Amino acid sequence: MYHFSRFIYICGLGFLFCVTSVYATSIGVTPAEFMQGDPARITIEGVSRDDIDSLSWGNTPLPLFEYEGKVSSIVGVDLSTRPGLSVLTLRLVDGTVITKQVRVGSRKRTTAPLGIPDKMGGNTPTAESNLMKMFVQENAILAQLTSTTTPLWHDSFQYPLSDTRVSDSFGYVRQTGASTIFHRGTDFEADIGTPVYALSDGVVRLMRQFTAYGKIIVVDYGSNISAYYLHLSQMNVRKDELVEKGQVIGLSGDTGYALSPHLHLSIKIHGASIDPMKFFTLLGPR
C-alpha cells in the first residue's frame, strides 16, 4: 500500500484554536504479487472520484469504477508482458502525482500435447498448417474489437455456467504438431446444449461462426473488460444486443477446434488475455 499524506489547516481571527486535519491517499493492489496473465484490482482510498484526474498503468489509461464502496480499477497483464517493474500513476485534479511501482512475476511455462480432431483433418501437417492459418485470420478479426471504458456491468460478475468444473486451465502452451499455441482462457466441462450465461450486464460486440473458434460470442462489459465464449452449439443473441447478468446467451458445444464438448471462456482487459478464474476472485461472486 502506498500512502500520500495531504494536510488541511484551518485557523483565523476570532478562533480560539486551530484544527489540523490529516488524511492519506493510498493506492492498493490486489493481489500484492502477480504474474504474466494475471489481473489485478486497483483500489484508491483517501480521495473521492471527483478528486482524481487520471490513473494509468505505464502508458495505458485505466478506467475508474466504484467497487465495494471504493474507487477502483482493474488491470490485465498479458502473457507476453516482460516480467519486471511496472508503474501505476495517479494524478489528482489539484496537480498531485502519486506513483507506485508494481512487480510483475514470470509465469512458469508448461507444455502439453493437443491433437487435431478428425473433423478438421486429423493430425497431419496439412491440417496443422490450415489450422494455424485459421488462427491468424480469426485473431485478426477479433483484434479489431474494442471495449468501452464506461462500466456497463453492475455489482459483480457471475460464472458463465451453473457447474464451474474446470477441464483445462489458463496459460499453458499446447503443442500441436510442430506448432505451439498459448491457451488464453479457461475450459469448463459442459455437455452440448448446456446454458451459457452473460457474466454481467453488457453489449454483444460479435456473434459469428469461425472455423477454429467455432460459434463465438463476444460481450463487452465496459471498464475495458470483454468476455469471449467459444465452441458454442447455439447463439441466442444478436450483434449490438444489450444483455443482462445471468441471461442465457447461448448453449455450449464442440464447434471448431474442440476435441470434446466444453465451454472455452476468455476474458480480456484492455486487450490483454488474463486468467478468468483469477478474475472471478477479484470481481466475481461474493
Q: How helical, in percent, are the residues? A: under 10%
Outline, from the CA principal axes?
Answer: globular
| Rg, Å, rounded | 22 Å
Strand coverage percent? over 45%
InterPro entries: Cell_wall_metabolism_enzyme (IPR050570), Dup_hybrid_motif (IPR011055), M23ase_b-sheet_dom (IPR016047)
GO molecular function: metalloendopeptidase activity
Pfam family, one: Peptidase_M23
Protein name: M23ase beta-sheet core domain-containing protein
Q: What's the topology here?
A:
Elements: E1 2-10, E2 19-30, E3 34-35, E4 39-45, E5 52-57, E6 60-61, E7 65-67, E8 70-76, E9 84-92, E10 97-105, E11 111-113, H1 125-142, E12 166-168, E13 173-176, E14 179-182, E15 186-189, E16 195-197, E17 202-209, E18 215-222, E19 225-232, E20 234-235, E21 242-243, E22 248-251, E23 262-269, E24 272-274, H2 276-283
Parallel strand pairs: 3-10, 11-13
Antiparallel strand pairs: 1-2, 2-4, 4-8, 5-6, 5-9, 7-8, 9-10, 12-15, 13-14, 15-23, 16-22, 17-18, 17-21, 18-19, 19-23, 20-22, 23-24
GO molecular function: metalloendopeptidase activity
Organism: Candidatus Taylorbacteria bacterium CG11_big_fil_rev_8_21_14_0_20_46_11
Protein name: M23ase beta-sheet core domain-containing protein
